[in-house]
Design goal:
The complex is a heterodimer of chains A (about 210) and B (about 700).
Chain A lengths: L2 E5 L9 H7 L11 E4 L8 E4 L8 H5 L5 E3 L5 E4 L9 H5 L6 E4 L10 E4 L5 H5 L5 H5 L5 E5 H7 L3 E8 L2 E11 L6 E3 L2 H13 L4
Parallel strand pairs in A: 1-10, 9-11
Antiparallel strand pairs in A: 1-8, 2-3, 4-5, 6-7, 9-10
Chain B lengths: L9 E6 L8 E7 L2 E7 L12 H5 L14 E4 L2 E4 L2 H19 L4 E5 L5 H15 L4 E3 L6 H11 L16 E5 L3 H4 L4 H9 L3 E5 L12 E3 L6 H14 L5 H7 E2 L1 H8 L4 H8 L3 H13 L3 E5 L1 H4 L4 H14 L8 E5 L18 E2 L3 E2 L3 H11 L16 H6 L5 E5 L3 H4 L3 H10 L2 E6 L11 E4 L8 E4 L4 E5 L12 H11 L11 H12 L11 H7 L2 E2 L25 E2 L18 E6 L15 H6 L5 E3 L1 H6 L7 E5 L4 E8 L7 E5 L28 E7 L1
Parallel strand pairs in B: 6-7, 6-16, 8-9, 8-12, 9-10, 11-22, 12-13, 16-17, 17-18, 23-27, 24-26
Antiparallel strand pairs in B: 1-2, 2-3, 4-5, 4-18, 14-15, 19-20, 20-21, 23-28, 25-26, 25-28
Classes of the chains: A alpha+beta (about 210), B alpha/beta (about 700).
Chain lengths: ~210, ~700
């Protein structure tokens, strides 16, 4: 069985190991594709951790008028092709997780427009070498994990969910998120709710 | 090796240079440069995991601020000098001071983020080459409370269990440990236990990332651990949650400790600690009813004037329930520094010879004198704790110093006083590789190596001896540290005692010197370390398997029994009053390591945490009209810092928190108290009284 990618928000300690690891990538050296956002709540140190969820029928792919965002055979949604991306930014608006970024094109790519959509490709280069994504490899707590689905799920107490409901929009993702066992779908109405939801999960006790 | 190397690169298996987990990692080396790290995923401690500091640790190797040649102070400025000039000057000035004021007028101040080989060498260098009794490492600032208490309770100073026992525990009790930020990799072990249903009890004045998901968080007033632990022991006794058989057959001193604990009923403890008495009882029940458990503590408990007593009081809870020395039944201090464990075993402490032998023990003195080839009467007596150096310097007893692997101008308590006294030194030489706040005061700077440029062993948090491997040569004229020490020894006329051609030569002598001591490494070889992915000491013979779990049959006192110790609660040395109404506690953040000398130079880590700040409860902040990002002056009787406020309800309203990794005007230690614990002489970094003012 193919290996799956998991997020376990309760375990995230906001240490930025994943962000530092992501910055190490040769294809986007110095720029992290992971988003680690502080939850602006006075009673909390918690941060919200977002990697690309690699949606099935990904809204970013569908939104791109240039068809610049390709999907690999194993379902990994890649950064926009540098030949095709016209910087329309539709993908930014389409993504319910606010994952894609627009970064300055490397100087070597002498082409207008000057920015290009970039996002997490689950370390495509590492995986072609048989290595796991770097962020999930280093994550000290297992808040990010990459492994056999059955093995990872058997080890943890939460439920691994990949169904999301954003208003009327239903999304299935290749990345799984651990939530309390009584939930099957993660239902979100707007970004603040998403953050608050993560905070609630993060602060729940184990019992 | 399980990992894949990229084209044109080779992988060097080694360990992280930062905390005591000593995570395994590969350094990626291309064309004589370290270009990154890769996961060593079958090294058992971390299985490829790394904290943020580990991911970018390699970036210090070729940092533009590396020191590339010796420096000598001329006309008030540090100027480039040759090795010969610098080394001659160090040897000459130290000898001159010793000639005038006696051998003990110079001290060697060392560190615990160095290999065992170097730790051993520093102790020998001080006693044999300089003939001074003053040698101590900066482990005095972090590990000594735990060390003193472990020796008293168990007769040996080491975590009692391998980390692999933690996932088997039903209850995990963490006291004064922000594991998530200071030992992030350890969190995985906690979660493995919790996945199997374990409950987590955390004692901390702050809702740290560690306390955030705890089942019971006892948010005590800083400095009150002793009352808390005594109170829990009383509940265990009253509710008969004791292992009477274990107490009778394997311990001494229970009755005295129990009699003392009787004075700590929940109501009294609740008042001292300012927690709900019910929470105390609930924690005691959880602890008392468990069949397996792990109790760990760290600097929050140990950085107090009653640090050793606090540790002993927590050890009482382990002994009373008999849960030690079995699978899933564990205890240990969560050591901070990279080689915090080995750095305190090989004879660089003022009261200790190699093998963790007491320097006052005539038998130990005879043995080590014979290993070193010196007359026993030439072996100096016990020195004083480095935390007392300021006083010694003020009294004119200490006038010269060789300083290595430390940065007291950031890390010493009451750093205003430390700085004033250091400035009085007639001569200060430092071995550094990046430069530090302390280097600014030096007369000579000897450029040394970083961890990727030398080989040798360290001993991790669980007593596992691991091997660091060399990836590249030091840059410029910088030299491997142990060679610098040997060069100095030669210039001091003691070269014949320091004939080492390699770090391995030092290791082989260390093994022999440790033989028969409490920390016995004699049976450990570098080959075994590689084959077995580390060997746990004690390991007295080549055919001995090593000792991952201590105390399975006996404790290390001569009678084989552990000791209870009862200590009455007493308040911290400085309590809030009208003038200084708040408690201040200090600590670490995940992005930085110790005095920040390395991590404050790595861009990614600086971005995550660029400067110190004051954590303050919104209720308290309101009294001062302070909002987040407002600058506040934090002032104690000893000094002040001005830092931005960070409002958070995760801290007690009567307490503020400052991280300590910065120097100069940003040093939290301008504020802290240099009151020392009578036992072990550790400073009370974790409690002092301050006033605030919005600026």
């Amino acid at each position: 069985m193919a290996k799956a990618f998991f997020i376990d928000p309760q375990r995230c300690i906001g240490c930025f190991a994943c962000v530092m690891a992501c910055r190490e990538c040769d294809s986007h050296k110095g720029v992290a594709m992971i988003h680690l956002d502080a939850i602006a709540s006075p009673g909390s140190h918690q941060v919200a951790l977002t990697v690309c969820m690699h949606c099935l029928d990904a809204p970013c792919v569908q939104s791109c008028p240039q068809e610049a965002i390709k999907v690999t055979a194993d379902g990994i949604v890649l950064s926009a092709s540098k030949e095709s991306c016209d910087s329309t930014r539709y993908c930014l608006y389409a993504c319910p997780f606010a994952v894609p970024m627009h970064e300055a094109r490397p100087a070597s790519q002498d082409r207008a427009p000057p920015t290009i959509m970039m996002k997490c490709d689950q370390c495509y280069d590492r995986r072609t070498m048989g290595l796991a994504p770097w962020c999930a490899t280093v994550c000290p707590t297992g808040a990010l994990a990459f492994g056999e689905y059955d093995e990872v799920v058997a080890q943890r107490r939460g439920r691994a969910v990949n169904e999301w409901q954003f208003g009327n929009q239903r999304i299935r993702t290749r990345v799984y998120t651990f939530v309390p066992r009584d939930q099957e779908v993660i239902s979100i109405q707007g970004e603040p709710r998403y953050l608050r939801y993560l905070e609630k999960v993060a602060y729940s006790r184990t019992k | 090796m399980t990992s894949t190397s990229r084209q044109g690169e080779r992988l060097v298996a080694t360990h992280c240079c930062f905390c005591a987990l000593q995570c395994g990692m590969y350094l990626r080396v291309a064309d004589k440069e370290v270009v990154g790290v890769e996961a060593w995923d079958d090294f058992p401690v971390n299985q490829g995991r790394l904290c943020p500091k580990g991911v970018v640790a390699y970036q210090q190797v070729r940092h533009p601020q590396r020191l590339l040649h010796p420096l000598v102070r001329k006309n008030g400025r540090l100027e480039r000098a040759s090795w010969d000039e610098a080394l001659d000057l160090v040897a000459g000035r130290l000898r001159e001071i010793q000639g005038r004021y006696g051998n003990d007028a110079v001290a060697v101040y060392s560190g615990a983020s160095i290999t065992n080989e170097k730790a051993y060498l520093m102790g020998k260098f001080a006693r044999v080459a300089l003939g001074t009794r003053h040698i101590d490492p900066n482990g005095r600032l972090c590990m000594v409370s735990a060390g003193v208490a472990n020796m008293k309770a168990f007769g040996i100073d080491r975590m009692a269990n391998p980390l692999s026992d933690i996932p088997l525990a039903e209850v995990i009790f963490l006291a004064g440990s922000n594991t998530a930020e200071c030992h992030p990799i350890l969190m995985q072990y906690l979660w493995q236990a919790r996945d199997r249903g374990a409950r987590l009890i955390v004692v901390d004045p702050r809702v740290t990332q560690t306390a955030r998901t705890a089942d019971i968080h006892l948010q005590i007033r800083p400095g009150t651990d002793l009352a808390l632990a005594n109170g829990i022991l009383r509940v265990l006794i009253h509710e008969k949650m004791l292992d009477r058989e274990f107490i009778a057959s394997r311990t001494n001193g229970f009755e005295e400790a129990a009699a003392m604990a009787e004075g700590y009923p929940p109501e009294r403890v609740a008042e001292i600690c300012d927690i709900a008495g019910g929470d105390l009882v609930e924690a005691a029940h959880l602890w008392g009813r468990a069949k397996t458990s792990f109790l760990g503590h760290a600097r929050g408990v140990e950085h107090q004037t009653k640090g050793p007593e606090n540790v002993l009081a927590y050890i009482n809870l382990v002994l009373a329930t008999g849960r030690i020395g079995r699978p899933g039944c564990g205890y240990g201090t969560i050591t901070g520094q990279g080689n915090g464990q080995g750095g305190r075993e090989h004879g660089q402490r003022m009261d200790q010879l190699p093998g963790a032998r007491p320097i006052a023990d005539p038998e130990a003195r005879r043995y080590i004198a014979s290993v070193w080839g010196i007359a026993e009467e030439d072996l100096p007596e016990q020195g004083v704790a480095c935390t007392e150096y300021p006083e010694l310097i003020e009294r004119g007893e200490l006038r010269g110093m060789l300083s290595y692997c430390n940065n007291p101008m950031v890390s010493f308590p009451n750093v205003n006083r430390a700085e004033a006294s250091w400035r009085k030194l007639e001569f200060l030489a430092v071995i550094e590789y990046l430069g530090s706040e302390t280097m600014e005061l030096a007369d000579v700077v000897l450029p040394g190596s970083c961890w990727a440029e030398d080989e040798g062993t360290t001993t991790n948090i669980e007593g596992r001896v691991v091997k660091h491997n060399k990836a590249v040569d030091p840059p410029g004229e910088a030299r491997v540290d142990w060679e610098i020490i040997c060069e100095l020894a030669r210039r001091l006329g003691k070269g014949s005692h320091f004939p080492y051609k390699s770090a391995r030569d030092i290791w082989e002598e260390l093994r022999v010197a440790s033989k028969g001591g409490s920390a016995d490494y004699y049976g450990i070889s570098w080959e075994r370390i590689e084959q077995e992915k580390g060997v746990f000491w004690p390991c007295p013979a080549a055919e001995h398997p090593g000792t991952p779990r201590l105390f399975q049959e006996r404790f290390h006192h001569p009678d084989g029994r552990a000791r209870f110790h009862g200590s009455e609660y007493r308040p911290p040395a400085e309590e809030p009053d009208e003038e200084y109404p708040l408690r201040c506690t200090t600590g670490r953040v995940v992005s930085h390591y110790l005095s920040g000398n390395q991590t404050r130079r790595i861009a990614s880590l600086v971005t995550s945490c660029p400067e110190p700040y004051l954590e303050i409860h919104p209720q308290t902040a309101r009294r001062y009209g302070t909002r987040t990002a407002d600058m506040v002056r934090v002032k104690s009787r000893r000094g002040e810092v001005v830092v931005p406020a960070r409002l958070t309800a995760t801290i007690r309203p009567d307490t503020v928190f400052l991280p300590y990794h910065w120097g100069h005007d940003q040093a939290a230690n301008r504020i802290t108290s240099d009151s020392l614990a009578p036992l072990g002489k550790i400073p009370e970094y974790k409690v002092c009284a301050v006033q605030l003012e919005r600026v």
